[in-house]
Amino acid sequence: MSSTIVSPPADLTPQQMQRFSKLVYEKIGVTISPQKVTLLSNRLRRRLRSTGVANYDAYYDLLSSTSTDTAEWEAFLQEVTTHETYLFRDQAHWDWVRNVFLSDIQAQVREGKRRPTLRIWSAACSTGDEATSLACCVADRLQPGGDWKIEILGTDVGSGAVAAANRGVFGERAMRLVPESMRRRFFEYDAETREWTSRDVLRRMMKFRTHNLLKPLREAPFDLVLLKNVLIYFDTASKKQVVQELRRVVSPGGYLITGAAEGVADLIRDLNSTHGWLHRFPTAQKPGVAT
Question: Which residue, among 134, 147, 58, has the nearest Cα to 98 in the 3D structure?
Fold first, then answer.
């Protein structure tokens, strides 16, 4: 790589924007609209400074000649896919998880209608805030231990996000909506750094790994999947591919939680949907659905 950086133009040209957008779409299915040229340009400039690559075209050549599992692709994806996240975002979702979903699971186990197992997937989990929120709810409601077998899988396309999720350390801003009782029970506080670290009672339930939503997921089936504020960046073809995979990995009668504006209503019309974000899969087994 060159050690001399030539100052890039203020923004990508329309042709460069089109090339980068096509590359991102082909790799991870995310669509970057032309209106985001300034945002993408700013983030690419950071990669040019970090790598010493001279200009946008040289950086495009670098990305297009390597696979997405390289360190630079991971850094690039962190730039173009990172969004703000924090624990217990969207309070209505967590009220339902605690007071309806987990209470239902608990009652079914008590009545002998199901085994004491629970599997949840936090897709596009970023730094693990959502998966950790799930673990808090499960630990609070089900008090796992003994016969309970609980698995919460968090996946993200970026290895940097997954590494942060595995650390399980959160700042004050990320923790601001966590109920005080859960803070005391499930986290350790460091007064010097003003950070909170997940206790083992949560960590034992969670595992994190990288995953591209356009690829099949090896783990299945799941009782609940959370896929929020992600599909808004996918076009129709990519959304169809992701929804098809969801149909494969969600258990009959299982649930999907989406963001309110994901744009997938036409693709899940057969599901029982309420609130605009909660969707239940049919209880009858369908061909191709995981068992």
Answer: 134
- Tokens coding 266: 């036409």
Q: Contact 127/173 with Cβ under 8 angstroms?
A: no
Q: Residue 8, preceding bond cis, omega within 30 degrees? A: no
Q: Which fold has domain 91-280?
A: Rossmann fold (3.40.50)
- The H or E element spanning position 182 is helix 180-186
Comparing C-alpha atoms, which of 83, 277, 148, 261 is closest to residue 135?
148
Q: How far apart are CA 198 and CA 274, in angstroms?
A: 32
Span 163-208, pLDDT tens digits: 999 999 999 999 999 999 999 999 999 999 999 999 999 999 999 9
Instruction: Write down the CATH number for the domain with range 14-81.
Output: 1.10.155.10
Asked if residue 60 lies in contact with residue 19, where contact means CB atoms within 8 angstroms, the answer is yes
**Torsion angle of the four alpha carbons 224, 107, 98, 239, in this order, in degrees rounded to the nearest 10:** 20
Task: Name the residue among 185, 27, 177, 202 with its Cα closest to residue 122.
Answer: 202
Strand order in the sheet with 169-171: 169-171, 195-198, 187-190
Q: In 3D, which of 256, 244, 247 has the Cα closest to residue 214?
A: 244
